[in-house]
TrEMBL record:
The lineage of its organism: Bacteria, Pseudomonadati, Thermodesulfobacteriota, Desulfobacteria, Desulfobacterales. Gene3D superfamilies: NAD(P)-binding Rossmann-like Domain, UDP-galactose 4-epimerase, domain 1. Residues 7-337 form the NAD(P)-binding domain. Its EC number is 4.2.1.47. It comes from Desulfosarcina widdelii. Its cofactor is NADP(+). This is GDP-mannose 4,6-dehydratase. GO terms for molecular function: GDP-mannose 4,6-dehydratase activity; NADP+ binding.
């Protein structure tokens, strides 16, 4: 049997990198869409990189953008993929309040452009489509825990855009018989999570505080509750969803919930730091119990105009129909993230001691 071909949008992101690794190990030929940037932007997949001058490559990158329909159609036509994983997005909820139009263009219309490309090229019976849907769709939650049947109530421009993408995926499945699925994924993290999402921000900052490279972690809503899993476990599900007899939509979650405050305390524990919480609301602080210094402080600039206060997924359907269950526990996830960020911080400390500048961004 000839090898399967997958096209991954968002291959340079967290999930794209894990999925690329996963599909290569399965013997796929993979194609990824990367954006033109003024610097190299392929850090997360550089270990998979194959020299473009080499013949017989199994990983090929194409320049492109989800806002550019002609580009997407040309790439689809050239690649003729068996599977498309649409992971590309302006994926930051808070940033979406500042860039609502762009977020809608990429996250909502981007999905439609790919589906329409599949249709225009007559690939409806060949190409299977995965849409990276999100627990943010539940927003102001109507039911706990959330299942595939829980009503949506988006609370950000990001979630509103993803709502369109969710329904256009369902619509193209029903209208044109395309094998198209939504994975409604709850938050998933890893050592290669973007540095401005809360988990990575915490593990990175606390590691740097531990080594004296940073004084304080400035944080937003400490009470937000999330169902955090590991990205490595979740990409397996993205693939599994495209291997079934019929397309369907699935919630992917751990079924366990923790607050941002708990995440901080757990990460601090990993570093041997004990945190004492003092004060309330915007005045709440986390003190290092060893020396009484404030190492965590609330900064209201991280509050969102409309917040998603609580999310908890029920992955029963994925478990029963796909035999999937998450492998990594909350404490293992935090452990792995802290371990890698501590190594990075140690490297930065050496570089700084040798008189060179390091990236001290703290946002
Ligand atoms: P990342 O932010 O790490 O990656 C996003 C990817 O999309 C990057 O490769 C980025 O490229 C690319 N991208 C952004 N804008 C465009 C554009 N206009 N055209 C083409 N590519 C673009 O996200 P994750 O890997 O964490 O998430 C993957 C997908 O899953 C996203 O759609 C996200 O919304 C969704 N999701 C994520 C969850 C999570 O907890 N991680 C949970 C539920 C859904 P570049 O590297 O150049 O910036
Ligand atoms: P989220 O992830 O918005 O759930 O979207 P994020 O890590 O940004 O926020 C989680 C919760 O933590 C609170 N929070 C902070 N968040 C950030 N980024 N920075 C802070 O300083 C901070 N302090 C508190 C937030 O208010 C929020 O309640 C992620 C993205 O990956 C989406 O693309 C994806 O769809 C969803 O997860 C599921």
């Amino acid at each position: 049997m000839s090898k399967k071909i997958a096209l991954i949008t968002g291959i340079t992101g967290q999930d794209g990198a894990y999925l690329a690794e996963f599909l290569l190990a399965k013997g796929y030929e993979i194609h990824g869409i990367k954006r033109r940037a003024s610097l190299f932007n392929t850090d997360r997949i550089d270990h998979l990189y194959e020299d473009p001058h080499q013949t017989d490559r199994r990983m090929i990158l194409h320049y492109g953008d989800l806002t550019d329909a002609t580009n997407l159609i040309r790439v689809l036509q050239q690649v003729q993929p068996d599977e498309v994983y649409n992971l590309a997005a302006q994926s930051h909820v808070q940033v979406s309040f500042e860039t609502p139009e762009y977020t809608a263009d990429v996250d909502a219309l981007g999905a439609m452009r790919i589906l329409e490309g599949i249709r225009l090229l007559g690939l409806e019976n060949k190409t299977r489509f995965y849409q990276a849907s999100t627990s943010e769709l539940y927003g102001k939650v109507q039911e706990t825990p959330q299942t595939e049947k829980t009503p949506f109530y988006p609370r950000s421009p990001y979630a509103c855009a993803k709502l369109y993408a969710y329904w256009i995926t369902v619509n193209y499945r029903e209208a044109y018989n395309i094998y198209a699925c939504n994975g409604i994924l709850f938050n998933h993290e890893s050592p290669i999570r973007g540095e401005t999402f809360v988990t990575r921000k915490i593990t990175r900052a606390l590691s740097r505080i531990y080594l004296g490279l940073q004084e304080c972690l400035y944080i937003g809503n400490l009470d937000a509750l999330r169902d955090w899993g590991h990205a490595r476990d979740y990409v397996e599900m993205q693939w599994l969803m495209l291997q079934q007899e019929a397309p369907d939509d699935f919630v992917i979650a751990t079924g366990e919930q923790h607050s941002v405050r708990e995440f901080i305390s757990q990460a601090a524990k990993e570093l041997g730091l004990a945190i004492q919480w003092k004060g309330e609301g915007v005045n709440e602080r986390g003190l290092n119990m060893a020396n009484g210094k404030t190492i965590v402080a609330v900064d209201p600039s991280y509050f969102r105009p409309t917040e998603v206060q609580t999310l908890l997924g029920d992955p029963t359907k994925a478990n029963e129909k796909l035999g999937w269950s998450p492998k990594t526990s909350f404490s293992e996830l935090v452990h792995e993230m802290v371990k890698v960020d501590l190594e990075e911080a140690k490297r930065d400390e050496l570089v700084q001691r040798a008189g060179f500048r390091v990236n001290n961004r703290n946002e």
